[in-house]
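Suppose you are handed a protein chain with no further information: no name, no annotation, nothing but its sequence. What can you learn? This example shows the usual starting point.
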Amino acid sequence: LGSILFPFGPTFHLLVVVLAILLFVVDLAIL
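A reasonable first move is to predict its three-dimensional structure. Written in structure tokens, the prediction is:
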């Protein structure tokens, strides 16, 4: 499943996870 969603490898997957966490933190900060 991971390889289908993230065909660019674990580095791209890690980047997406970090971006998602940053967006979540920013959303909490705004609220």
